[in-house]
Design brief:
Blueprint: E1 9-12, H1 25-36, E2 41-46, H2 50-56, E3 64-67, H3 71-80, H4 85-115, E4 119-122, E5 141-146, H5 162-178, H6 184-187, E6 190-193, H7 196-199, E7 209-212, E8 237-242, H8 251-259, E9 267-272, H9 278-287, E10 294-298, H10 302-310, E11 314-317, H11 326-333, E12 338-341, H12 346-349, E13 355-358, H13 363-378, H14 381-398, H15 401-417, E14 434-437
Parallel strand pairs: 1-2, 1-4, 2-3, 4-5, 5-6, 6-7, 8-9, 8-11, 9-10, 11-12, 12-13
Antiparallel strand pairs: 7-14
């Protein structure tokens, strides 16, 4: 039997950056890890990350094609910066991304012709509702894994602001019509979704198969547990928050929770990250009398973040609008237990063996729940250690990047060959991966929900 030839793959995305983190890191993982498997791989990405990528992989620059920045991008960025983050993203941010996709599509079509590329993969944006222009590019298109279709917890919708929520709802309704003009998702050969919530956010009348695959993965070389267990004492604990300081991350919840704990209990909080909420959060820290217990570190390079994670006793993630939450997987890989809001992404990753999930029934319930969970773990160092080990075992078993790339190669081969996705292609080597829809199956009417 002749050996299978791996199809040539082109990754196309708005950003590819380990420095930006979040979803921007996903295209870079695919590009570098596919190349590491000997797959002929190209990357089309905006030039804003050119300097970083040249530093990370100078030997691969001949395979990276940059979308040039332009005056329209700059105007959109300036206008969007004046608006609430979510509103700016779906208005001026989206307009800028569409302009970039027009140029990206031109580059992709040329590369497909010149190099005989077998599969075009657009891993981001991860939103299932954002239309795509990657259609009729000369090769079958894979999109995702996507993770989105989020809303705030019902009891916390006031956190987002009524006007913003109405605009977001209108934008979601409008997106279904825009998909008729920008047909990338409707025409894609394969749509990857992280969960059923995301699947219900896909546009109607998609032609391709839909496979469930978690979008985030673990870099097990970077996110390592501490080599020697810290000698934890009952009552003391070092908490870590790692992420952007934006309103929906709700870091104020954790600050107030720490403020409810005994002042001499030995619980401290390190906050790594930056954003528009940093000043208000620092002011709240002073107001609560927590300056000696809370430290703001600002943005740190990823290796320093990994070192901070290794030295933490627990990660806290009070987010109210977290679709994914890669930081949860990073904590699990580092053997660190997690206290998180029971909403969105953390529910996909955590169970009772490795995390404590707080129901967002009200703001005060969240503060009280985080305070109680922190107090419990602070007094039980043995429980922290057991949860950390369980989390690492779960992360390595379910979310390793190498396993994800193996799965993707199987799917790429099926898509490039033009054959339907079968159960054999998605036979789960990991419980997180499963087929949720075969080609041309009808979707339920719930697809129309926002």
């Amino acid at each position: 039997m002749p050996m299978k030839t791996k199809p040539k793959v082109l990754i196309v995305s708005e950003n590819a950056s380990m420095m930006f983190g979040g979803e921007a890191s996903l295209p870079w993982h695919y590009f570098t890890r596919l190349r590491g498997r000997g797959v002929d791989t190209w990357l089309v990405v905006h030039e804003r990350t050119r300097a970083e990528l040249a530093r990370l992989a100078p030997e691969a620059l001949d395979r990276i094609h940059f979308i040039p920045d332009n005056r329209f991008n700059i105007v959109c960025w300036k206008m969007g910066a004046k608006m609430p983050a979510q509103l700016g993203d779906i208005t001026f941010g989206y307009a800028s991304r569409i302009a970039n996709q027009i140029e990206a599509r031109r580059i992709v079509r040329r590369l497909v012709r010149e190099h005989g590329i077998g599969v075009v993969h657009q891993p981001i944006p991860v939103s299932p509702r954002e239309p795509s222009l990657m259609v009729d590019v000369g090769a079958p298109v894979v999109m995702g894994p996507m993770n989105g279709n989020m809303s705030y917890p019902p009891a916390m919708k006031a956190k987002a602001g009524g006007a913003v929520q109405k605009i977001l709802g209108s934008a979601r309704t409008l997106s279904n019509h825009v998909h008729g003009l920008m047909r990338g998702k409707r025409e894609a050969a394969l749509l990857l979704v992280a969960n059923q919530r995301t699947r219900l956010g896909l546009p109607p009348k998609c032609r391709g198969a839909v496979v469930e695959l978690v979008e985030n993965g673990i870099d097990t070389e970077l996110w390592q547990p501490r080599s020697v267990a810290l000698s934890g004492t009952a009552g003391g604990m070092r908490l870590l928050f790692l992420g952007r300081l934006v309103d929906w991350k709700a870091v104020d919840i954790v600050l107030e929770a720490v403020g409810r704990l005994p002042p001499h209990g030995g619980v401290t909080l390190d906050i790594i990250g930056d954003g528009p909420m940093r000043q208000p959060l620092q002011a709240l820290t002073e107001q609560l009398g927590l300056k000696e217990r809370v430290r703001f570190h600002g943005f740190l390079p990823q290796p320093e973040c990994a070192a901070a994670m290794r030295n933490a006793d627990a990660l806290v993630l009070p987010s109210l609008y977290e679709c994914g939450g890669a930081v949860v997987l990073e904590a699990m890989a580092a053997g660190v237990p997690v206290i998180a809001t029971a909403w969105g992404g953390p529910l996909d990753y955590l169970d009772a063996s490795c995390g404590i999930l707080i129901e967002p029934t009200s703001r005060d319930d969240l503060v009280a729940g985080f305070a109680a969970a922190i107090g419990q773990l602070a007094s039980q160092p043995e429980r922290r250690a057991a949860m950390g080990q369980a989390g690492r075992n779960r992360a390595l078993r379910n979310f390793d990047w190498d396993d994800k790339i193996s799965r993707m190669l199987v799917l790429y081969e099926a898509v490039a060959a033009g054959r339907p996705i079968t159960d054999a292609d998605v036979e789960p080597t990991r419980p997180a991966d499963r087929l949720v829809q075969h080609q041309f199956m009808l979707r339920p009417s719930a697809h129309q929900e926002s």
